[in-house]
Specification:
The complex is a heterodimer of chains A (431) and B (320). With 431 residues, chain A is α/β, with parallel strands linked by helices. In chain A, 28% of the residues lie in helices and 22% in strands. By secondary structure, chain B is α/β, with parallel strands linked by helices. Helix content of chain B is 42%, strand content 14%. In chain B, the strands form two sheets. Chain B has a five-stranded parallel beta sheet, with helices on both faces. In chain B, strands 2-1-3-4 form a four-stranded parallel beta sheet, sandwiched between helices. In chain B, strand 1, helix 2 and strand 2 form a beta-alpha-beta unit. The chains are: A alpha/beta (431), B alpha/beta (320). Chains A and B meet through helix 5 of A and helix 4 of B.
Chain lengths: 431, 320
């Protein structure tokens, strides 16, 4: 029998203090006074099922100057993630079985987290013709989530067909909701601040009109749809209405849309340039409320690394996107736990259980129980840290640098292996 | 004043009046036979223009030359990394050459702010128009022109308390309107924006101006002291902001009929270049009420005052 270790005196979510025994890659016992080859004191720590990110950009293949699967999953591990979904806007685009299998293989090779490639909905993300969704689903990468993220599947007929087609293998379309004509040249949220700054506005209605259309399409064809990065109060209302009507829709919010507003753009610092854009305070409050009441199902980072030169320029020329893997759990803690509005069990739902369900990720997002695969994240909720620019990610475009955030990921255990221990990244990934 | 002039909103009332007063002195120089002061001898002013604007560039060039500065015109077409000439590389190049002041015109809103806060360059930064954001020297020269018409030789020290200004046209995309709004508010004037709804910001709640759709209503009810017509850019005409040029000219253009409704002493302004027959007709543009050419002349005086202010650091500290 392989060696076992015991996490001593840990709370599973909001539960009582217990010991967790892990043998090989499986949780073998939960109880008190458990023994193992090695005992690790986890007093004061909260254990969650390993975090799952449904929305990251790992940039490989094609944009290795920004990120690789290795560096991206290292950042993920430090953020407490044991699984990440990698968006399809690579070069070549992940629109064939070959590319998705390559990305999945790079993930296995790295060994810091499970990598689930997301397949493109349309060939080359161009919105003209369906990519070979079946081939990607049936490939070794076993793709279940499809998205043209970064671009919206704006053609209503194509979106309808995609929603229908993926029913054949239980897939889901993750829509980046952005009406393209309403957002031509858009630079930031359209509102009072954009009017003053003279930056072309990205109106809320450009997001909301697509969400409204797509939930109705999903209802019509009896399919399910996932909405990426909701950013407006209006989007929340539409999703709430759709869920009440029984439409099979799930919704996602990013950490930055839960925390930051368009007021930050006044600095013209392009680290705040992101798509969808930072919205207003009332949008932030609506998104938080929706996350607490269950209208929004998950937090996903939309981790979008960019090299320095893509941000070190005037606002209009800068790339959209910000990194977020290493700060997501802290923001979830801030919004759900420290606010007194919800609890750690909800953090586990939105950062692990629900995204794994939407992505149909085997052995991820599973309740910590005897016999389950040992994917765990242990958080010290009392820690306070000031975010620094240094990151395991290849890129430094974090909007949180200098901010004080609560909580710290102490250990990340991926299939029984410490990818992060005492806050330090393992020198090598899991073999 | 500050070492940079990025936004008309950066200026306090006192600072704005001081620049206008200095510009009065500069205007006197411009009336002399020898139009030159030795003030900025040995200083290098770079006109960094990422966007074509012959009028603004030669105005700054003349202003710097009349103050005896060395002037370099750097025309950098194409602004982004993708186009090959990055703002950062250009700024660092100028820094290496020892520019004391950089006058920047750029098609991207905020470009002057980015330059000023990047650490790429130590020289003073003067915003000569950034995208659809601001054009602070235009606002200063407009305020100077208003003051001159209202107070003549008694302008020194005066603000624009209670002056009613109607700014008419493409407010949404106008850096002239934004800078004028900020400076006019600072100087105590009352601003009315007049435009078709498509050319007003969707949310103007942060702007201290009254919004109107009807030019005729504003002329009749407000009796403005100043009507400032904005240029309609060609690219708006094919983007469904309004149905046709004819309809625009009919409803929002300034013409002889509307000129006739102005109260005595009221003026008609335009930042140029004008689309005669579109936002303003020839009779109005060439009328005694028109200040178009005075604005051009005053532009040189005001830009002399601005360059003088940003480049005389010691004095700046005494202002506040």
């Amino acid at each position: 029998m392989s060696t076992s270790f015991v996490l001593k005196n840990v709370s599973i979510g909001d539960g009582p203090v217990v010991d967790i025994q892990i043998t090989g890659e499986v949780v073998t016992a939960i109880g008190s006074s458990l023994n193992g080859t090695e005992e690790i004191d986890c007093s004061g720590l909260v254990a969650l099922p390993g975090l799952v990110d449904l929305h990251t950009h790992l940039r490989e293949p094609g944009f290795e100057q920004s990120e690789t699967v290795l560096t991206g999953t290292q950042a993920a591990a430090l953020g407490g993630f044991t699984a990440v979904h990698a968006m399809a806007n690579t070069s070549p685009v992940a629109d064939t079985a070959g590319v998705v299998e390559q990305v999945a293989a790079l993930g296995r090779e790295a060994g810091y987290a499970e990598v689930f490639p997301i397949g493109a909905v349309t060939v080359g993300l161009e919105g003209n013709q369906l990519a070979e969704l079946g081939a990607m689903a049936n490939s070794k990468a076993n793709v279940r989530v499809f998205s043209d993220d970064g671009k919206c599947v704006h053609d209503p007929v194509l979106m309808r067909r995609a929603l229908e087609y993926v029913k054949a293998f239980g897939g889901v379309i993750a829509q980046h909701a952005q009406e393209p004509r309403l957002t031509e040249g858009a630079q930031m949220h359209e509102g009072a601040v954009s009017a003053e700054l003279g930056l072309t506005g990205w109106p809320s209605v450009a997001e909301e009109s697509i969400i409204a259309r797509d939930v109705l399409l999903a209802e019509h064809v009896g399919s399910r749809v996932h909405i990426c990065h909701l950013s407006t109060a209006g989007s929340v209302e539409i999703v709430r209405w759709a869920k009440a009507r029984g439409i099979s829709v799930t919704a996602e919010v990013t950490p930055h849309h839960l925390l930051l507003t368009d007021e930050l753009v006044r600095s013209y610092n392009s680290v705040y340039k992101v798509n969808p854009p930072l919205r207003t305070e009332s949008d932030v409050l609506a998104l938080r409320e929706a996350l607490i009441d269950g209208t929004i199902d998950i937090i996903a980072t939309d981790h979008a690394p960019h090299p320095i030169e893509a941000k070190d320029c005037e606002w209009n020329a800068a790339a959209f996107g910000m990194i977020g893997l290493e700060t997501a759990a802290s923001i979830a803690q801030l919004v759900l736990v420290d606010s007194g509005r919800s609890n750690w069990n909800r953090v586990a739902e939105v950062l692990s259980v629900n995204p794994a369900k939407i992505g149909q990720d085997p052995n991820q997002g599973v309740e910590i129980s005897v016999g389950s695969v040992a994917n765990l994240t242990l958080i010290d909720p009392t820690a306070i840290r000031t975010v620094i620019a240094e990151s395991a990610s290849k890129s430094k475009n974090s909007p949180y640098v200098g901010l004080e955030l609560p909580g710290r990921v102490k250990h990340t255990i991926y299939r029984g292996y410490f990818t992060v221990r005492d806050g330090n990244l393992a020198k090598a990934g899991r073999a | 004043m500050n070492r940079n002039l990025l936004s008309a909103g950066d200026l306090s009332r006192d600072q704005a009046i001081e620049i206008l007063d200095i510009a009065e002195g500069m205007a006197d120089v411009n009336d002399r036979e020898i139009k030159k002061l030795p003030t900025l001898r040995g200083k290098t002013v770079v006109n960094l223009f990422f966007e074509d604007s012959t009028r603004t560039r030669i105005s700054f060039e003349l202003a710097a030359k009349r103050l005896s500065a060395d002037v370099i015109n750097f025309s950098a077409k194409g602004s982004s990394v993708s186009k090959g000439e990055s703002l950062k590389d250009t700024a660092q190049t100028l820094e290496a050459m020892g520019a004391d002041a950089v006058v920047i015109r750029h098609s991207a809103s905020g470009a002057a702010n980015v330059l000023a806060h990047s650490g790429w360059i130590n020289g003073a930064i003067v915003n000569a128009g950034d995208g659809t954001h601001e054009h602070p020297t235009q606002a200063l020269l407009d305020a100077f022109t208003m003051r001159k018409r209202l107070h003549g030789s008694a302008s020194n020290g005066k603000a624009l308390e209670g002056v009613k200004v109607a700014i008419v046209g493409d407010i949404l995309h106008s850096r002239v309107a934004r800078s004028n709004l900020l400076l006019l508010n600072t100087l105590g004037a009352e601003v009315h924006f007049v435009a078709p709804p498509t050319l007003l910001p969707a949310n103007a709640s942060g702007m201290k101006a009254q919004l109107n759709y009807s030019l005729d209503d504003v002329l009749a009810e407000e009796k403005p002291d100043v009507v400032m017509m904005l240029r309609v850019q060609a690219e708006r005409m094919n983007a469904s902001y309004f149905p046709s040029e004819r309809e625009y000219a009919r409803i929002w253009g300034f013409n002889a009929d509307r000129l006739g409704t102005l109260k005595p002493g009221a003026i008609v302004m335009h930042p140029g270049p004008m689309n005669r027959g579109l936002e303003i007709d020839a009779i109005s543009a060439d009328s005694p009420q028109s200040t178009v050419l005075e604005q051009v002349a005053n532009g040189v005086s005001v830009r002399m005052a601005v360059l003088f202010s940003v480049l005389s650091g010691e004095r700046a500290n005494n202002v506040n």
